[in-house]
Each structure stands twice: as structure tokens, then as C-alpha cells.
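User: Show me sequence and structure for the first protein, then do the same for the second.

Assistant: Starting with the first protein.
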Amino acid sequence: MHQIITSLLETDMYKFSMGQAIFHQFPSYMTMWDFKCRNKDVKFTPEMVEEIRSQIKSYCELSFNEDELSYLKKIEWIKRDYVDYLRLWHPRFEEFKIRATDSGCGLEIETFGTWANTSFYEIPTLAIVNEVYFRMANDYGELYKSFKERADKKVAALVDGTWNIGGFSEFGMRRRLSSEAQEYVIQKILDAQKSGGFKDSYFVGTSNVFLAKKMGVKPIGTMAHEFVQCVGQGDRKHNPAYSNWFMLEAWVKEYGVLNGIALTDTVGTDVFLRDFRKTYATLFSGVRHDSGDPYAWGERLIEHYKSLGIDPKTKSLMFSDSLDFERASAIYAHFKDKARVAFGIGTYLANDTDVEPLNIVMKVTECNDGPVAKLSDVEGKNMCKDPAYIDYLTRAINWRLEHKELDF
């Protein structure tokens, strides 16, 4: 099979956002990551696993070139010392454990090493796994044909105003059908936007930095759950119920008012709002929704901004949870006069075919030799290998929420 990842820029933008803060503030942190396939009927064959191993090994032979580094230098918040670090950096195949298994989905992947290294492995690994599976388990030509037909219809529905979604970005790299499919749908959107535009929608950019550079659009992305988990829970002296506070403090230290969309659901939005007080709510340009009821979440954030004396119309509500144009259009209609509304749309744009897409993730499960956890606003998105730690974290959060008068 052709090499799937051909550039170290081919990852999501938030890996560079988080990566710079990790490099400056948490260079010694060690992490372990685990792959998980949530589909119950998917089985990776030994041949697929061997191809995945070969593709990851080829990825690990890449380095940044000067043209790529020059592109990164132009991004307002990227600092020169971080670019110099990236000049020396490359993935290490020794930090991967990849094997075929008789149980589960038939594939196990673990990565382990410094957080500055392992954070970068997530997105390319998932893109490789996804593309290998769909090329080897199906007639890829027929899948790609159905993908293009569906993509064409989606874009046409934006053009004629069937769906109106305001500002939106493409977030599909981790679960894309293939690299050519992701590029196809972005180009289709760009061509439509340039030729006649959409009624009440506009394309902002893509999370894929390589394609953003290649296609002349904005790279989009700020932070992921890993940042809250590792910053808030990686130091055992920290109370994990304050994970968001430690995250917000580190992010503002790194970026000030730049590059600020906060993710609310890593340990639940209830406790996030305890830390998202006036200073942080003012400095951050907005918040991102990734689990739970989007309408209840949006209304709650709007009321929170109002309670702090902040006009919610000056803040962004970004939605990124399992979206399609129909859902985004309804959410946009509900909130467009209440706040700035934006969408990050992934699998629906990058892997909508006649075959059900994979629901695969690669999550950090340990930091500094101890467990970390994600407790999102819906239980199905939780991930932790240690039930005792989940119990401890849940009790810490509940105690804090029950004793609000003790917050300071």
C-alpha cells in the first residue's frame, strides 16, 4: 500500500497548540496511550495489523523540513524555540507496541514515552488504522465513489440553503476514509464557496495542518482532553477535581489571550464552570462542546457568561460532537442570535460512505506512572483503565460540587 502519512504536518492543529505548552511547561511528563475500537462487529486481520505496523514505521522515519517549519513560524502564537525543537524532533518507532490479538477487535496499540512525543502519535496512528482497514476490508474504489457522491450532495445542500450552519471547519483526519477523500471534500467546499458561496454558511478551515498549508486555508484547533487530563491529574499533588483550573492557568501562561477555546467536558462541565470564572472567561475567546445535550450545554454557557457580566454574543460556542449538517443547522438556528456559533465537523465530512465508519480512539490512560481519566458529560465517552481511580476522581469531584462554599 502507498505511504499514508507523508508529512509530520499531517496531524490536527491542536497537537501543535498543546505541544508548545507541553514543551515549555511539562517536558518531563511521561504518558501511555491506548487504542480502542468501539465498533462491536469490526475485526482487524493479522494482514491488516502488519500493514498498520509497516505504515507506522514509515511515519516514524519522517522529519520536518524547512518549508514546513517556515509555515509553522507564520502562525501568530508559535514561538521560535518550539520551531527549533521541532527541527530536531521525529517520531520513535520504539515507543509503539502494535500486535494482533485473538480477542476484541484483533488489534492492540500502545504508545509510551514523554508526553511531548506521544501526543503527536495519536492522530497519524488513527488515520493509518482507519485507511488500512477500509482499503483492505472493502472494495475501496466503490467506497470512494459513494463517498464522492455523498460529498457532492452535501455541498450542494449548503449552496441551495437546505442547511445553514454559519462558520464551520473540517475535523475529520482521525477517522477519514483516506487522505484523498479528506482532500476531495475540502476542495469541493472551497470550489463552491469561491464560485457562488453559501446562503448562510462559510468554510473556515481544516484541523489537518498539512492540508491547510497545501490548500491555503486556516489550520483550526486549540486543545484536546489530554491536556486537561495530564496537566490536572499528572501531578499527584494536585486535587484532580481542579483539573480544569490547572489547565486554564497553564494555557493562559502560554498564550495569554491568543488561541483560546476551552474544552469543558474532560471531568464534566459542572466542575469546569466552577473554575471558568471571570478572568478565564474573559481571556478565552470561547468554549467547545464535545459531549452531552448541545442545547442544554449552550444555554448553560450563555447563562454562565451573563452571570459574570460578559456578553455571550462576544464569545464563541464551538460544537464538535458527532455532527452532520442537519444537526448543525438546527443548533445554529437556535444559538445564532445568542452567541458566536462555530462547528467542527469530522466523520460526516471525511468518511461518509455506504459502509459504517469506524469509531476508533487513541486516549492517554497514564501520566507519570499513574492513571488519568476522562469523565465526559456522557458515560459512553469515558476512558480509564483503573476503576479505583475513577472512583477516587468521581468522589473528589462530587465532594467539591457539594461544598461550593469552600472554593476560593
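Switching to the second protein now.
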Amino acid sequence: MSTKERIKVIISDLDGTLLNTDHQISAYTKTVFQKLHSENYLIIVATGRHHLDALPIVEGLGCPVYLVTSNGARIHSPAKELLFSFDIASDAIKSVLNLDIDPEFTTVLFKEEVWQTNKENKKLNSFQTVMNYPPEIVDFNFVEDFSAIKLFFTHNSHQKLVELKDKIMEDHSDNFHFAFSLPFCLEFMDKSVDKSVAILKILELENYTFEQSLSFGDGFNDEKMLLATKKGLIMGNAVESLKNKLPHLEVIFSNDEDGVAKYLAETLL
């Protein structure tokens, strides 16, 4: 049986995957995904972004998609109906922020309507082409409710983020798991939350399996998703450490070369 006959579900990350370096979906990619929809493929977008941030982006595809956001903490249907929601407990996040984290790190709590942060970060702001999900600068010493969809840190030094990750996980591995969605983006989720777990909920709802699915990604928050599907494809622009960790997976063209759309057009259309 050919790939075209086996595959019924297309799963893709956003940043570094469907989106180019200008955080846009190309016209060619939109055309390919609309054609896939017309041929009855189920399309799932799975991202670390917040749903308010991601929704206007996926609308640009011009076809219905299931949307997994915050690395699996939220699932929205193609009709934008909230199907699944999970937040990290306030005390768990407060325990992390009590570790005397250096203020040189940008700290972010993904809340439902805003993201709370200790300082303005123009690099993070640039990811939003539409400001649907505004930042709120706060002093975390005076925040009372720390419950959040996701805990996030960014710094220009990947090594400093690795050291911060080690410091946090030393005493918090029972509550959290982490992922580097990009080398400068360190994300903490509740241990029960992962893109692959959320995607499985959708597949079961639609009576499909991972064996009928292709997935595309470029970051370590995509790892379990890439390994779960019948075939996982790594973007050419992905970090070398991900490619080296998953050497058996095929590497395709980069996000700036429409790697996802070109692979799908050649393989399925």
C-alpha cells in the first residue's frame, strides 16, 4: 500500500515548520492545504503558541483544522469549539518562581486572556502578526494566582537556558516536563500535557490512528509527535541536535522553502 493510500491525517507544527521566518504562511502552502482538505485529509496544527495567538494564523490556511495549542494544553475543533483544557496549578508554578530566577531571563505565564511577563521582549512580540494575545508586564512578587496554561522562559543564550532547566527540574520533575521549542525558548508544561497526547484525543474522536498520520516539526516539543506518527518529517531548518537525536527520520526542505507543502504535494497530491 502506498503512502497516499495509507495516510489520512496531516499534522504540522507552526513556527519553523508551516510558518516562514517572517511568521507567515506562504500562498503556495495555503493552496496545498486547501487541496488536501478538498481530498478529505484531516488536518491538525499542533503548536506551542497560545490559542488566541494561533487561531488567526490557522484561519489563513483557508480550510478547517483541528488546533492543538500550548503544546497540548488546549484543543479546539475546526469550528473553534474548545474540546480540551488543562492548566498548571498555581502552587506548582509559584514553587518554580521562588527559585530566585535571575531577572535577565524573560519569564512568561501563559494565561487565558493575556501573557504575564516580567519585562518587555521585542523578539517575543515579533512572533505575533496580529496582537490577539497581549502581554501584561507584572512583578511576580505581587502576583497571587500563578495558575497558567504554560510556563515559559527565554534568553539569548541557549546554555543559560539549559542551566535554568537543570535547576528547575532538579526538584520539580514530578510536576513538569520541559521542551525547547526553539533554542532560545524553554517551556514547562504539566507532566500530563504533550502534543502527542492531545493529537491522540483528536484521532480517537475522528476514528483515525497514528498509523494513518504524517507529522512535521522542527523542535524538541515536536519529538513525541514525530515518533508517534507513521512517518515523522523533520524540517531542514531544525536544530542539529534534534536531527542527531532522531537520525532515522527524514529531513525535508526548510520552512523558508515551503518544505511541508512541497513534501505533501509530491507525496499525496
